[in-house]
Amino acid sequence: MLLKILNLTHLRCPDTIIVIRKNIRNIQYGEKILILSNDISTTWDIPLLCNCMNYTLLKKNTHQKPYQFLIKK
């Protein structure tokens, strides 16, 4: 399985979610994507996105910036 790293530390909401959705569309089912973000809204937006789109949030680190989210499509 491939792992794509998506550094979004320079973006703010709603751009972060827009870029995440665009990039997840381009990966295959079973592949993983690591998202890095400094935007506090991603701490609740990404888990909601995963829930709505049936993606698996494998790991979440929101204790320090950049926040990290490992998602499996």
From TrEMBL:
Taxonomic lineage is: Bacteria, Pseudomonadati, Pseudomonadota, Gammaproteobacteria, Enterobacterales
Print the keywords alphabetically: Transferase
On the tree of life, the source organism's domain of life is Bacteria
In which organism is this protein found? Buchnera aphidicola
Q: What Gene Ontology molecular function terms does this protein carry?
A: transferase activity
- What name does this protein carry? Sulfurtransferase TusA
What residues does the UPF0033 domain cover?
Answer: 4-73
Q: Does the keyword Transferase apply?
A: yes
Answer yes or no on keyword Transferase: yes
InterPro entries associated with the record: TusA-like (IPR001455), TusA-like_sf (IPR036868)
